[in-house]
């Protein structure tokens, strides 16, 4: 049996994954840090329905003493947005004690997923705002990253979007 499912196979199935999607979050624990485990293919074949959101969870130990709760879960999308599939790597340091209640672990994971989705939505809103400013020929802020120094500036009176804009870099088109 193969260890991973081909991404082409998943994309061919479409966002419904060839089955009924029911409300909820399905957590699929595995050792892979990338790709879709072959076990998921068995779910698609044998189960009459799967959850509307799927999270592939891997637990990994990293070469640092401790990982803070804020940095514990690393998320990324597995497919396009309409598939609602994510990869989550739960990171622990070599001195971290991993004896928490599974319900607490799962609640923290879901809270981190929600935070990831909120941040993704904010980044998308910034991208859309930037495109609108580019089209209008005004100053535009480059993609705003958390680690990027920012400045609050007053916008020229010709811009009607608001009185202040947060931006990292300027470009005048």
TrEMBL record:
<dbReference type="GO" id="GO:0015079">
    <property type="term" value="F:potassium ion transmembrane transporter activity"/>
</dbReference>
<dbReference type="GO" id="GO:0016020">
    <property type="term" value="C:membrane"/>
</dbReference>
<dbReference type="Pfam" id="PF22776">
    <property type="entry name" value="K_trans_C"/>
</dbReference>
<feature type="domain" description="K+ potassium transporter C-terminal">
    <location>
        <begin position="23"/>
        <end position="121"/>
    </location>
</feature>
<dbReference type="InterPro" id="IPR003855">
    <property type="entry name" value="K+_transporter"/>
</dbReference>
<dbReference type="InterPro" id="IPR053952">
    <property type="entry name" value="K_trans_C"/>
</dbReference>
<protein>
    <recommendedName>
        <fullName>K+ potassium transporter C-terminal domain-containing protein</fullName>
    </recommendedName>
</protein>
């Amino acid at each position: 049996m193969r260890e991973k499912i081909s991404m082409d196979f998943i994309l061919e199935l479409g966002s419904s994954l060839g089955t009924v999607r029911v409300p909820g979050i399905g957590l699929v624990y595995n050792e892979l840090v990338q790709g879709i485990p072959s076990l998921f293919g068995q779910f698609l074949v044998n189960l009459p329905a799967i959850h509307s959101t799927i999270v592939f969870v891997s637990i990994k130990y990293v070469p640092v003493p401790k990982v803070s709760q804020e940095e514990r879960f690393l998320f990324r999308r597995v497919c396009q947005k309409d598939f609602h599939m994510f990869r989550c790597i739960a990171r622990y340091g070599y001195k971290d004690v991993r004896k928490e209640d599974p319900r607490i672990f799962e609640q923290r994971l879901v809270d981190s997923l929600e935070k990831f989705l909120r941040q993704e939505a904010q980044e998308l809103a910034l991208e859309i705002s930037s495109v609108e400013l580019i089209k209008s020929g005004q100053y535009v802020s480059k993609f705003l990253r958390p680690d990027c120094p920012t400045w609050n500036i007053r916008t020229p009176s010709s811009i009607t979007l608001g009185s202040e804009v947060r931006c990292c870099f300027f470009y005048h088109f």
